[in-house]
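User: Before I run my own analysis I want an independent prediction to cross-check against. Here's the chain; please return only the structure tokens and, at the end, one sentence I can use as a sanity check.
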Amino acid sequence: MMLPIVAFGDPVLKKVSIEIEENYPKLNELIENMWETMYNASGVGLAAPQIGLPIRLFIIDTRAFADDDSLSKVEQKELSEFKKVFINAVIEEEFGEDFTFNEGCLSIPDIREDITRKDTITITYLDENFKKKKETYNGLRARVIQHEYDHIEGILFTDKLSSLKKRLLKKRLTNISKGNIKIDYRMKFPLMKKGR
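Assistant: Structure tokens:
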């Protein structure tokens, strides 16, 4: 079932999410619904806060990046096979070179900005079967993980922008919160007037 994606301005997007237990109600169904919602919106990642749930859960599928001819064959293969569920994730370390990439977000449609992050991370998490994992990723896989991880920490990519850039985007962000935007997937707008 496709779920509405929460738009910029909703308080749930600014909350630090809580850990969940293995007996979380209908977890498998929730994960399936998140996959369906993400694919319908042409996303590569989706975090539970983006569907209104302040829990430490996000999903990633980077296959959409695998066709990029500027990447090596190894990177293309890694991206084409990277589909994962992350539960109760903790980024243990971010290191390596600074890596700038033009990021967007399903909760902030039609806004993309260059964001600089470290190019390598080590993360511990539970998979969908609650098996503990500790893995290191770099490049675009690390980038997408960092973006989704920020969501469960109550951070949006726009929070990483300069004060000037935030001021320049203020009107566009307000319009998103009010639902004054054309999108082709379901969204929930915090400032939309009733009856619209």
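Sanity check: Residues 163-178 form the longest helix (16 residues).
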